[in-house]
Design brief:
Length: 296
């Protein structure tokens, strides 16, 4: 016995996402055999380059798993009324099962009004207040894709999460808060850390599970971590080094490897899971709508 610490497990988000997508594809195939075709509408406003890439990837993945996709590209100058009108049409269209409005929206458009206008049954991003409220009540609702993906990775890695102390760094509506709610539902004890926390590092050092969703490159290093903890790095930050740029997370990966028992890399960790869970949400939404109509 040398007493040396075992090498940490690198949590492979690409493989986990492939598994989710394979399950979705199989179920979609079964539905198609019954004459049912799940469909996702993706709405993009403006020409933000990153948003265009995200939308393209979502449409590609949908095609791969047999989900039909409808893309609606509106100019950056479109009005709130025009956007709400399109969403109302999609809400009323029974061939559309999921509606995703790519964020961020141009500054002149009230994002909350748009998210609230999506039929909660088609809200595959899980951002409508009915779904947000349902999640906090522990009801079975459509759940935001990124935290749902993180939860899958944690369950794949740890199995039962019951009794673990989880620290979520970040309290945004799209990642931090729903992540905390999901971990609570999984019977973790949950601490949420944010920019006003007095000693974020000391709180993190108590954690069996750290989920970092901050948007600050390499903020969390080994000095924030308890030996043996599991680290999920949601952060996607573009760092320019010399003439080139590369993606890094919120966690200083090399440093965290010296303490963590398992960790997600960036890229290749949480990122691929987000789209996979979007496809899964579209499938769930379609099944629920058809069950409610008596077609399934
Ligand atoms: P937001 O900017 O909305 O939220 C960041 C949170 O971090 C806030 O709650 C903020 O606190 C907190 N914070 C800021 N500085 C500190 C600090 N020094 N210590 C502790 N907490 C701090 O970001 P998002 O939640 O939207 O995204 C977070 C990261 O995740 C980003 O890098 C984003 O790109 C990435 N992301 C990745 C996705 C994926 O698919 N992998 C999907 C979505 C996001 P306060 O509330 O007090 O301001």
């Amino acid at each position: 016995m040398t007493g040396a610490q075992a090498l940490p497990q690198v949590i492979d988000g690409k493989a986990a996402a492939a598994q989710v997508l394979a399950e979705v594809r199989e179920q979609v195939l079964g539905l198609k055999e019954q004459g049912l075709q799940p469909a996702l509408a993706v709405v993009l406003v403006g020409s933000d380059a990153a948003s265009q890439v995200y939308v393209r990837n979502k449409i590609l993945r949908a095609g791969e798993v047999g989900i039909a996709s409808l893309e609606y590209a509106l100019p950056a100058t479109c009005t709130l009324a025009e956007l709400l009108d399109l969403i109302a049409q999609l809400n009323a269209d029974s061939t559309v099962n999921g509606i995703l409005v790519q964020l961020p929206l141009p500054a002149h458009i009230d994002e909350n009004a748009v998210l609230q206008s999506v039929d909660p049954a088609k809200d595959v991003d899980g951002f409508h207040s009915e779904n947000v409220g349902g999640l906090s009540q522990g009801r079975n609702v459509l759940t935001p894709c990124t935290p749902a993906g993180c939860l899958r990775l944690l369950k794949n890695t740890l199995g039962d999460l019951r009794g673990k102390h989880a620290v979520v760094v970040g309290r945004s509506n799209i990642v931090g808060k729903p992540m905390a709610a999901l971990l609570l539902q999984a019977d973790c004890s949950v601490t949420v850390v944010h920019s006003r926390s007095l000693d974020a590092a000391a709180l993190c050092r108590q954690a069996d599970i750290v989920v970092a969703a901050v948007g600050r490159p390499n903020l969390i290093d080994a000095s924030w971590l308890k030996t043996g903890c599991v680290v999920i790095d949601v952060g996607i930050n573009r760092l320019s080094v010399g003439g080139s740029s590369r993606l890094v997370g919120d966690v200083d990966y090399a440093s965290a490897l010296t303490k963590a028992s398992a960790i997600t890399p960036v890229p290749g960790g949480v990122g691929p899971m987000t789209i996979a869970l979007l496809m899964n949400n579209t499938l769930i939404a379609a099944r629920q709508q058809w069950a409610a109509q008596g077609t399934l």
